[in-house]
Amino acid sequence: MTLSKDEFKVMVMLYAANIDGNIQSEEVKVMLKKTDFETVDKVESMFDKMNDAEVIECIRENKPLYVTSESDRLEILADLCAIIEADENCTVMEEYMVGALRRILE
Fold first, then answer.
1. Domain boundaries, the chain
2. pLDDT digits (tens, 9 = 90+) for 5-20
3. If you classify domain 5-104 with CATH, what class do you get?
C-alpha cells in the first residue's frame, strides 16, 4: 500500500503512539501540527484495520519513498520523539518502540 509522505509520517507516529494500546489526545494534537485532520483520520482508519506486522510492513514498503537521506530520517525521528513526549510520560515500552522504529528507518 503506497502512502503519501504525510500519510507515511502519520502511520509511523500512530504506531509509536499506540505502543501502550491507547492513542492519547495529546499525541493526536502533535500529528495535527504535522498535517491536516483528513490525513490523520484517513490513516487512523487504515491503521485500525491493521495488525502490528502489517503496520511494520507498510512502513518498510514506504520507507524508500520518503526516507532517502539522513535529514529525512532525522525529521521522522523528531516526529517520533514529539509523539513520545506528548503525554509527558515516557515508558520503557515507548523507548523500546523508538529504538525499533529507528532501526526500521535506517
1. 5-104
2. 999 999 999 998 887 7
3. mainly alpha
